[in-house]
Amino acid sequence: MMLERVELVRVHLPLVRPFRTSFGTQTVKDILLVHVETDAAEGWGEAAAHPEPYYNEEFVDASMLVIERFAVPALLSAPELTAESVQSSLARIKGYPAAKAGLEMAILDAELSAGGVSLADYLGGTRDNVDVGVSVGITQSVGALVDLVSSYVDDGYRRVKLKIEPGFDVEPVAAVRAAFPDLALQVDANAAYTLDDLYHVSLLDEFGLLMIEQPFAADDLGGHAILTRRLRTPICLDESVVSLRSAEQALAAQACTVMNLKVGRLGGVLACRALHNLCVERGVPVWCGGMLESGVGRAANVALASLPGFVYPADLSASDRYFHRDLTEPFVMTGSQLAVPRGPGLGVSVDQSALADLRAIRHDLEVNR
Ligand code: SMG
Ligand code: MG
After folding, report:
1. pLDDT (average), residues 251-280
2. Quick one: average pLDDT of 120-127?
3. How far is the CA of 78 from the centre of ligand 1 (A)?
4. I need a surface site. Which of 40, 49, 60, 304 has the fewest CB within 10 A?
C-alpha cells in the first residue's frame, strides 16, 4: 500500500461522570484519532494515551509529536507498507506504544477494509460476543461507591472493577462485597502501593476478588512476586507488561498469574495478539484492558477480546458508560456482553458530524515523497 494522506484528529470528549484513579481525575477524555488514506482504502485508528504522563510515560501531546516527526517519516521511508510491517518499521522509536498502536490500527483498518475482512476474523477471533465489565473510579465516599456500583449492576454489568488507593481500599471493597455477595469483583491500584504495604494489601484477600491488578510500581516485579506467593487472590499485571520480553520476565519471576493486555500499552493489536498466543501456550489467562477509548479504539479492543485466550471479562463497557455521544455508532451491551463488529476492518464508521460538533482539531501531516 501507499500512504497518501495522514491526518491527526484530536477531540475532547466529555465523560458522563468524572473518572478518578490513584493518579488523577479525568472529566474529559482527550482522544487522538489517526486517519490514513492509502491507494487501497482509508482507515482509522486510536492512539489511546493519557493527557498527562501519570499512567505511563506517554501523553497525548507527545504521541502526536512522535507520529508527526518520527513515525510517519519512518513508514514513508520503509521498503513496504503493510499492517504486519508497521511494528518493525517503527521499532527504532523507543517507547510511545499508543502512538504506534494508533498508526498500526489505521493501516490495518485500511488494509482489511480493502480486502473485505473484519479485524476479528483476521486476528483469529472465535467469539461473536465478548464478556465485559465496568471499571469504577474512586468516589467521594463509600456510600457513593455502593450507589454507583448498584447503578451499573442495574445496567446489566456482571463484573465490576474498583479503583483503589491508600485510604480507599479495604473499607470500600468490604462495603461493595457486603452489598453484592455474588458479584464478580476485582480491584486495580495503578501502582499506588509499595512492598511496605504488603500486610495492608493482603487484607484484600478475604473478599473473593477475581484479581488484584498492579498494586506496585511497574518495575517492581520482585514485590509482585512476593505478593503472588502470599495471597490466594490472583495478581494481575498491567503497567509492568510493555512487551513480549517484559511479559516473559514477569512470568519467569512469577510476578503474576493473570495479565491485562492493552493495545495502547503494548504498541498495537498485533503485539497484543502475539502476547495472547504466548500466554495461551504458557497457560496464563489474559483479559482485555481499556483506556476509556472512543468507539474507534473500542472496536479494535472488542475484536481482540474475541480471541480464545481472553478468559476474564474485558474492561470494555457500552458507549453510554463513557460518553453522551460516541465518535462511532454506539456500542450497546446485551447481557454483560458486547457484540464483536463483523464489517470489514474495524467494522465501525467515524461520525463526521460528531467530530464537527465536538470541534475536533484536524491536522494534516506532510506525506509528500
Ligand atoms: O476503558 O473502561 C475503561 C477503563 C478501564 O480502568 C481502566 N483502565 O489501569 O486499567 C487501568 C485503567 C487505565 C485508565 S485510567 C483513566
Ligand atoms: Mg490497570
Report:
1. 98
2. 98
3. 34
4. 40
